[in-house]
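Subject: two folds for Thursday's group meeting

Dear M.,

Sorry for the delay on this. The cluster queue was jammed most of the week, so I only got both jobs back this morning. I'm pasting them in the order they finished. Each block is the input sequence followed by the predicted structure tokens. Could you check whether the formatting survives your parser before we put anything on slides? The first protein is the one we discussed after the seminar.
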Amino acid sequence: MANRYQQGMDVRRSILGDTHVDHTEGCKTSFDEPFQTLITEGAWGTVWASDGISDRERSMLTLALLAALGNFEEIPMHIRATANTGASKQDVLEAFQHVAIYAGVPRANHALKLAKQTYDEMEQD
């Protein structure tokens, strides 16, 4: 498991960036440490570390799933990650258009609003 944790941390840093991961790690407590380990090993060390699809495709899938399920809190983080995954603005738009058709226009509309705000912030940084 130590290897999966380290691999997960490496992938997490490459996708989300050191600043985000350092902040999250700095906020970690004994209460949420098991949860952070679960995410690092499961999401990042297993799913994101897989070479079955590209980071670009995985990014698009993640954004579409977040929007479709109404998990809007993580959309800005994953929009920022597109700078590292290679998913373009057009890719994100295409993913959210699929959300509109298959999961509902209101969810896609809100996701697009968050994406626009986040891209604006990214361009100003």
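Second protein, same layout:
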Amino acid sequence: MEILDGPVVETAPERHTAGIRIVTPFRGMFAVRDKLMTELYGWLDERGADYGRTFLRLQVVAMESDMELEVGVLTDKPIDGDGRIEPGTLPAGDYAILRFVGHGRRANSTLINWIRAEGLPMDVDENPAGDRFGGRYEMYLTDPRSERMKTKWQIELGIHLDLLTAR
């Protein structure tokens, strides 16, 4: 992993999304991600929808069991869902951000350790069954359709800092 920028705190507006949510074991997560990206791009392209950056949102992180995740894209306005494709949002507020190239396993611990060292209020319910994040995403700054080598992808890891009352 090569760090490009951060960690820093940035404020973001609410962002509209369209995505596919799934529960999957950690071991197969990246193969599932790639398959869902292809399905999502095809669905959006068939409808002529405008969309932006692709992201992976980990809602429940449980390395030893199943994880809840969403593969999605940013959209300029809400998109009606259809079957597996669901509209959604990335919440507004402050995010701890780390931009890097390569695999994100070390990026996650780097950013979480920085958040804790800074004494910031991370939006996560940490428990043995899996950490449930109010807002954690990996935004692909490199378009996965044009760069196949995942080790070259530039990624923005964001963790929501504002504490949400409802999950």
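Two things I noticed about the second structure. Residues 62 and 127 are 9 Å apart (CA to CA). The mean pLDDT is 87.

Cheers,
T.
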